[in-house]
Amino acid sequence: MTRVGIVGAGNVAARHADVLSGFPDVTIAGIADTDPHRAEALASKHGSPAYGGHADLLSAGGLDAVYVCVPPFAHGNPEHDVLSCNLPLFVEKPLSLDLQTAEKIATEIERRSLPSAVGHHWRYLDIVEQARDLLSGRPVRLALGHWLDKVPPVGWWLKREMSGGQIVEQAVHVLDLARLLVGEVEMVHAVPAGDSVDGEVDRATSAVMRFAGGASGLLATSCLLTRKHRVGLEVCAEGIALELSETRLLVDGERAIEDDGRAKTRVDREFINAVQGRAADVRVPYGEALRTHRVALALARSATERRPVTLHD
Ligand SMILES: NC(=O)c1ccc[n+]([C@@H]2O[C@H](COP(=O)([O-])OP(=O)(O)OC[C@H]3O[C@@H](n4cnc5c(N)ncnc54)[C@H](O)[C@@H]3O)[C@@H](O)[C@H]2O)c1
């Protein structure tokens, strides 16, 4: 039995706990949250002990891996303490608010040669694999990313210094997909709508991106809406246009292919396989997510500083 601890007991932790509980070879060994009521509520659902913080969870011992499912502002200490115990680490996106925190964690994971994974489950969509096949031999020349949505119902999200803003917190999924289908990003220029409230995230941003392979890209984000309106990535290559959402691939505006809906299970299963030392298809280990995080942070910086930002390798 693989014994997993979970740090953070909010929405995404509940999802991982449900998926992990469905695996016959995994036990939720403990759940920690700085809000003891939340820890208790999720832990009791899974018959696990609850802890008031990650340090208590780690001190209790007996873990094989830890999921860190905290909001953006809370990353850093939990990961370092997990790594100090030499435990494999699954981290929810975004990795952190700044680059330094994530770079230090990446260095430590590498130094200890520990399995890691990040919650970029879009990489496990079966329609993403089909999109890659359709694009084989046809380099993408244009990418159009969107995240046009409502404000998520979590208290910290609208505060810039807690969430990092919509690009870092949400559109990072689309940026990760763009890196996969188009390639590395070398320049970004983001322009926020000029009506942001002091200390709060931008309600709308548009951005231009240049990819290292020469492709051109656009990204549009907004949280002004009352529901999810358009979230995904469109790409154009010689003679083909693909439109990807989390559920559907549209080919040339006509042929729709539905996803099999198993990405959120695969992302956990492959990490557990890696923890168990079995053949594992972990598509976004921490170091790979760090490359996407750099793009998101460059866009956020460009929007704040009102100037293009170049990414260096
Ligand atoms: N990959 C995905 O599809 C996906 C989906 C939802 C959320 N997320 C990400 O997961 C993260 C959490 O989102 P959420 O919706 O679960 O938020 P949430 O607010 O519902 O839950 C976060 C929990 O973390 C707890 N917490 C805060 N600091 C902590 C700390 N230092 N130690 C332990 N617990 C701490 C909070 O008390 C809260 O219960 C966000 O970064 C979000 O982007 C990813």
Write the layout of secondary structure elements.
Blueprint: E1 2-7, H1 11-21, E2 26-32, H2 36-45, E3 50-51, H3 54-60, E4 65-68, H4 77-84, E5 89-91, H5 99-112, E6 116-118, H6 126-134, E7 140-148, H7 160-163, H8 166-181, E8 185-192, E9 204-211, E10 216-222, E11 230-237, E12 240-244, E13 248-251, E14 255-258, H9 263-275, H10 286-305, E15 309-310
Parallel strand pairs: 1-2, 1-4, 2-3, 4-5, 5-6, 7-10
Antiparallel strand pairs: 7-11, 8-9, 8-15, 9-10, 11-12, 12-13, 13-14
This protein binds nicotinamide-adenine-dinucleotide.
Please provide a written account of the structure.
This protein has 313 residues and is α/β, with parallel strands linked by helices. The protein has two domains: 2-119 and 266-280, Rossmann fold, CATH 3.40.50; 122-260 and 292-310, Dihydrodipicolinate Reductase, domain 2 (2-Layer Sandwich). It has ten helices and 15 strands. It has a nine-stranded mixed beta sheet with strand order 14-13-12-11-7-10-9-8-15. Strands 3-2-1-4-5-6 form a six-stranded parallel beta sheet, with helices on both faces. Helix 2 links the parallel strand 2 and strand 3. The mean pLDDT is 97. It binds nicotinamide-adenine-dinucleotide. Nicotinamide-adenine-dinucleotide binds at residues 7-13, 32-35, 38, 53-54, 69-72, 74, 78, 92-94, 119, 121, 154, 169. Residues 3-120 form the Gfo/Idh/MocA-like oxidoreductase N-terminal domain. This is Putative dehydrogenase. It comes from Nonomuraea fuscirosea.
